[in-house]
Write a structure and sequence with these properties.
This protein is an alpha/beta fold. The chain folds into two domains: 118 residues, Alpha-Beta Complex (Aspartate Aminotransferase, domain 1); 222 residues, 3-Layer(aba) Sandwich (Aspartate Aminotransferase, domain 2), CATH 3.40.640.10. 37% of the residues lie in helices and 15% in strands. The strands form three sheets. The chain has a seven-stranded mixed beta sheet with strand order 2-8-7-6-5-3-4, with helices on both faces. Strands 9-10-13-12 form a four-stranded antiparallel beta sheet, with helices on one face. Strands 1-11 form a two-stranded parallel sheet. Strand 5, helix 6 and strand 6 form a beta-alpha-beta unit. Helix 1 runs antiparallel to helix 9 and helix 3 packs parallel to helix 4.
């Protein structure tokens, strides 16, 4: 019947499980959200002022290449502005990379507990995702390389990884790159780079500026601009050219560009955010890691806490929720049903989480 005829999405689209963000408290509640890895110190005051100033010019289109933002990134990070492309959050850029370099019959490789957006964008491009097992919740270079086939076109690597917080050293990332064919694109997703304290870590800038098949993707969301949706990427000239050809013509809005540039230049605020995170990330790790719970060592602005089983994890989640502390369940989205991801928040929030979980394991 004609009534049954309707537009249909491309094959495979309806097989994709949609991204599920972390929960928030009920509207009007005073719940503390520790489920989305947001900044506990808000945004840079300079970024807030720039965002407000942009409200005086909402009738005009933003500059199409995000030149002001790219210049700020270039000045602070020491990379040529023409090797940078900006996006509506890093997710926008990841989608564009998949659209550019993946198609029907291709494969993309990722570690088992990597960012859950990677399978979505891979399948949306018509390609297949190859999940590779990890070692101690950490990407394993040997296993990743062993999973590469003639069909492989992209390797997705979140470094540090979400939701585990684990990372690969600069030497291991370079070993991974050295083992890939030159036609395979290595995507280093350094979304949490601002929070890393490990001495052997590298954000991936050197590889992204020197190699012909490496890009580094970053975001300003974790620095306090989650609402503004600002991401950026560094890569070879050919990759940047390809992305610029298909991205939206005004894909970063004016408030985002101005606030982003101000946030990037406010290195004092970034340092304060990093110091707060390091202090309370280390503290909550030491307080909770025990015979009852295991905290996976993290380099992000969150920790992953593992419980004896899924039932204990659910009890912990429900109890924290009842007390107004909302953390991230990672069973359905990441396949770690006995774990919870807890964002680093204020001192009060961190002490609250620790107090509740310590009391819980004594009675569970």
């Amino acid at each position: 019947m004609a009534d049954d005829i309707r537009p249909l999405p491309q094959p495979g689209i309806l097989d994709i499980a949609a991204y599920v963000p972390g929960k928030a408290g009920a509207a009007g509640s005073h719940a503390v959200k520790l489920s989305a890895n947001e900044s506990p110190l808000g945004a840079s005051p300079k970024a807030v002022a720039a965002f407000r100033a942009a409200s005086e010019h909402l009738e005009i289109y933003p500059e199409g290449s995000s030149n002001l933002l790219r210049t700020a990134l270039s000045d602070v990070h020491g990379v040529a502005a023409e090797r940078i492309v900006c996006g509506n959050g890093s997710g926008d850029l990841l989608h564009l990379l998949a659209q550019c370099y993946l198609g029907e019959g291709d494969e993309a490789v990722m570690n088992r507990y990597g960012f859950s957006v990677y399978p979505i964008i891979t399948k949306a491009a018509g390609a297949s995702i190859v999940m590779v097992e990890e070692t101690d919740y950490t990407a394993d270079v040997d296993l990743l390389l062993a999973a590469v086939t003639p069909k492989t076109k992209i390797v997705w690597l979140a470094n540090p990884n979400n939701p585990t917080g684990t990372y690969l050293s600069d030497a291991e990332v370079r070993r991974l790159h050295a083992g890939l064919r030159p036609d395979i694109l290595l995507v280093i997703d350094s979304a949490y780079a601002e929070y890393v304290t490990a001495a052997d870590y590298s954000v991936g800038l050197d590889l992204a500026t020197q190699a012909s098949n490496v890009v580094m993707v970053r975001t300003l969301s974790k620095m306090g601009l989650a609402a503004a949706r600002v991401g950026w990427m560094v890569g070879p000239a050919a990759v940047i050219d390809a992305i610029n050809r298909i991205r939206g013509p005004f894909n970063v809005n004016l408030p985002g560009q101005l606030a982003g540039a101000a946030a990037v230049r406010d290195t004092e605020f970034t340092a304060r955010l990093k110091a707060h995170n390091a202090q309370w990330r280390d503290w909550i790790t030491q307080e909770l890691d025990s015979n009852h719970m295991h905290v996976v060592p993290s380099q992000g602005n969150f920790v992953m806490v593992l419980f004896p089983d899924a039932e204990h994890a659910q009890l912990a989640f429900d109890t924290l929720m009842e007390r107004g502390l909302v953390v991230r369940e990672i069973g359905n989205s990441y396949g770690i049903p006995h774990g919870l991801r807890i964002s680093i928040g204020s001192e009060q929030a961190m002490r609250g989480v620790v107090g509740i979980l310590k009391a819980l394991v004594q009675i569970a």
